[in-house]
Amino acid sequence: MPRQPETGGAPIQLARVDAPLFTPNGERRNGFDNLVIMTGLSHPQLAKDTAHELSQLVDPSHTIPVVEPVTKFDEGGERRVVIEPNVRGRDVMIIQSLCLNKETETNVNDAWAEVLLMMDALIRASVGRIYVVIPYYGYGRQDRRSFSREPISAAAVAQHIEFGAGGRFGGITTVDLHAQQIQGSINSPWDDLYGEHVLVPAIASGVPRPMTIVSPDAGGGKRADRVARRLDATAASAYKTRDPKHPDKTVTSALMGDVEGTHAVIVDDVIAGGGSLADAAKIAIDHGAIDVYAAVTHAQMYGQADQKLTNSPIVRLFTTDTIPQRPHEKKTVLPVAHMLAQAIYCSLTGESIHETLLDN
Q1: Which residues, including other chains, have CB under 8 Å from residue 263's CB and lie 6 or more apart?
Q2: Helices (H), ranges, 207-304
Q3: Cα dihedral sign for 278, 276, 233, 226?
Q4: Partners of 154 in beta bridges
Q5: What confidence tens digit (pLDDT) does each residue in 273-285 have?
Q6: Mean of per-residue pLDDT scores for the chain
Q7: Alpha-carbon span 53 to 316, nearest angstrom
Q8: N or C: which end of the chain has fewer CB atoms below 10 A?
């Protein structure tokens, strides 16, 4: 029998998009009265939470509709996406992380395909503008070629999304891209939000002083410096090498900076298998850190990552819900819905995202 989709968290009801497109004076409605949020199966609860937060920012009495397309599966694994409400002339904000969700049997490729199918359905339904919010940008670590005859997958994902939306594309919003240069792969607006806007308050209230902010590799040095400045702390960086025959495997071998007598906080954009994080924590302890915390925006946590976290010297892992999370005794999951809602609000009103997020 074909499998039927399920959603995590509270159920999302199919929205009635019944607000009139034109005012009584015959003027076309714009902005939030004309906005519909749409979600696929990778993380529907985040879309619902973001719509709620956005409604609170705009007008608590106004509910921004969330549409969940009817997704059907055949026995060959193909997906069929059907958008039931009338969305003609509306501006649609697709919110979809490109990630694994075991509850809905959705992987990163399914999530990407679903975004493309939703966009095609929306274009054929004569929508106004299409915006795509991708809290976790899957394939983001494949931002360069390590070998000849290898794709730059991070660019290919963005280019397909831009092309798929055609002339109706309003842009992309992401959270903590692995590499900022990915934004240059398309010629459309792209806002990348810093996860530290959510993580820094949790670090400030949950980690004792004195603290040292540690990057697990040289590439994350700028992130560690930014977080350290916001927390009035010092910064350090671990040094790791990557096996050219096994790009997912790294070895942390040294630490640049002083963590002795401080509480070390490792900051990073993503945890995959958890090996690099555990190695960096051990190096920090070996160099005299009192204890170790971690603050990571995207927690994929695949394979033995949960067990590695349990066995590591890390006291507490602060992460966000850009990816659906399993519970873990060392993990604190922070919501990003309010931050996403602020970014969407700014995108549609012309306000500065940077200034708005720093002020909140």
Answers
A1: 207, 208, 209, 210, 211, 212, 289, 290, 291, 292, 293
A2: 221-231, 275-286
A3: negative
A4: none
A5: 998 899 899 999 9
A6: 89
A7: 27
A8: N
175 closest CA partner among 192, 158, 163: 192
- Residue whose token pair is 């709620």: 52
CB of 292 closer than 8 Å to CB of 238: no
Task: State pLDDT tens for residues 35-59.
Answer: 999 999 999 999 999 999 999 999 8
Q: What is the pTM of this model?
A: 0.88
Peptide bond between residue 210 and the one before it cis (omega within 30 degrees of 0):
yes
DSSP notation for 315-345: EEEEEESSS-----TTEEEE--HHHHHHHHH
Cα–Cα distances (Å) from 152 to 98, 173, 181, 246, in that order, read 16, 20, 12, 17
What digits encode the pLDDT tens for the residues 61-105?
A: 888 999 999 888 888 888 889 999 999 999 999 999 999 999 988
Please identify which residue in the block is written with the tokens 């069929």. 80
pLDDT, tens only, 322-357 = 999 999 999 999 999 999 999 999 998 889 998 888
Asked whether residue 8 carries a pLDDT value surpassing 80, the answer given is no
Site of tokens 């070895």: 251
Would you list the DSSP string of 47-84?
HHHHHHHHHHHH-TT-PPPEE--EEEE-TTS-EEEE--
